Amino acid sequence: MFKQYIKNEQFNLQINRFINDEYENDQKVQEDLKSIIPQLKDEESWFKAWNDKAIAREQDGDFSVASTYYQASEFYLSPEDPRDENAYRKYRENFYKGFNNFEYERYQVPYENGYLPVVKLVTPNATKNLLLFAGYDSYMEEMVKMSKFLKGIDYNIYVFDGPGQGTALRQGIHLIHNWENPVSVILDYFNLKRASAVGMSLGGYLVMRAAAFEKRLDKVVAFDIFYSFFDALRIRMPFDQITKIEQLLAAKDAKTVNIIFKSMMANNLDLNWKINKGMENVGVQSPYELLQQFQKYNMEPIMPLINQDVLLLAGENDQYVPSSRLVEIDSKLINAASVKSIMFDKASGGDQHCQAGNRQLGFDAIKEFLSNK
């Protein structure tokens, strides 16, 4: 269940994300949290608290937990920070040392001037295929770990980092809105004539975009819905402020937009992280350039093009997506073969972004959806 570990809303969401799905009832991890949480004051103390515990757990041979702690430690580091690459490397090394939930195969699928990393989770005698990917800040190993909730379904599961994610981003392959491109490359490489797809967080937009143009996808899941990037800004800004920013963008006033954002980011951990992470993902140098790119990520023009079976998931207290978008998206998927929408409330424990703190709720709904013919 989603817990209130700390007053900082962004820190609290990430603690739930990293800990609760796997370690909520792990006594040693809960003891670690008693030491970690009081130290969390800013991005630097966040890194140190998690990194110190990661080193200790790795030395003890507890690789799965060490991996999680390394991932948490890396979360707020900038790509220019010399500690970032080591934390990411340690995260992945410890992950594969500790992962044993599935038989799996690892691939490097050629893409542009590099490759997209893929982990194929093998289900013996499976007759179907499932693509699984995340969004703005997740790594494919995090999705591989969550796949435990899907174990036993009649699918081989292909988990990958796409452009702007994980190892792909570290090769200079930046985030794009036209997600049908990497999806098509994956389908071609594995010669998949038909597949279902689940996109998590920003992946809730990316999977719908892919479905609009890649018709080898037969079932698609937005886990959770993601209507537009500007929603994530609007939900945290006063109406007059976001309206002014949108007017300045329309007027192409880059200088004023950058001044406004740099001022806001100086005193806002959440906004500072969102914008800096976005600039890294997309490969731009200013908030203005990022917002220009953000305008491409919008469900409105693609909804009539989606003709697959669709599952839409949402949490009523999502920090990034207004819950009202669920009804709107559902009503505008006018050509979908079928649409099922689920809103998780606080009583269910799934009311947060991507059901953080109780992801099994989301995955149970996905399993049921995928099992229906």
UniProtKB/TrEMBL annotation:
The keyword Hydrolase applies. InterPro entries: AB_hydrolase_1, AB_hydrolase_fold. It comes from the Bacteria. Keywords: Hydrolase. The keyword Hydrolase applies. Residues 147-336 form the AB hydrolase-1 domain. One of its GO terms (molecular function) is hydrolase activity. This is Alpha/beta hydrolase. It comes from Leuconostoc mesenteroides.
